[in-house]
Amino acid sequence: PYHDSISSVNPNNQTNPRERVIRRTLQDRSLTPINYNYLYMRGSDSCFTWMIRSLSMAIAHTYTRAILGVDSPLILVEADISNGLPQMQIVGMADGKMRQARERIKSAIKNAGFKLPDRKITINLSPADIPKDVSSFDLPIALAILKASQQIPDAPVEDYCSMGELALDGKMLLSPGILPASIACHEAKMKLIIPELNQAEGALLASPYLFSANHLTEAATDACTCCHLHNNGLPEIISPTAITLDQIKG
């Protein structure tokens, strides 16, 4: 139907017929019968290409781990980019923590060299009834946004977990609760990306599923520059020259 409508547009009309079709489709995302190949053949200017790409922006998801004592339940992180005023809404998190995380993630995405979508962004963290440490959720939320906006189309973020607080420049900061999450991912045979600053804690577990990254860009490129962690053994806590009770006099 859109093929015929494009062909029958009055050529004297100043409005670009391709743009009119795309705008109409953007207004109603249920209008799916559109001939993408034909539209691409009609032109490849940057504005038109951007509008084509925006049609396929939908839902992306990844995983992370919450910390409940010694347990670390799996958390689904979903990102939806839709038409609407530019804003970011996080569902499944306390309002105060949501505001703090939202500003950190926005700055980290932009300062890491990516583009923050100028559309409505909805983040869902489920199950919603599990208490969540907001700082370690920065990285998976950012990855879900980048995946939904097709900035990292080849990154299989839906196949692994990630944890880490993000600085405003995109650097990954030290995050608590890495060891319980590492054990849970090892038992589930699921890949986990952690901050490089948590290597010492993660290395206590000899797991082939544990990787580290120092920056959002490293994690976003399918951990291409991440290093595989090897077990370095338990640290020596008690020194052999420590004073014992039988040496204390008085």
From TrEMBL:
<dbReference type="InterPro" id="IPR014721">
    <property type="entry name" value="Ribsml_uS5_D2-typ_fold_subgr"/>
</dbReference>
<dbReference type="InterPro" id="IPR020568">
    <property type="entry name" value="Ribosomal_Su5_D2-typ_SF"/>
</dbReference>
<dbReference type="Pfam" id="PF13541">
    <property type="entry name" value="ChlI"/>
</dbReference>
<protein>
    <recommendedName>
        <fullName>Magnesium chelatase ChlI-like catalytic domain-containing protein</fullName>
    </recommendedName>
</protein>
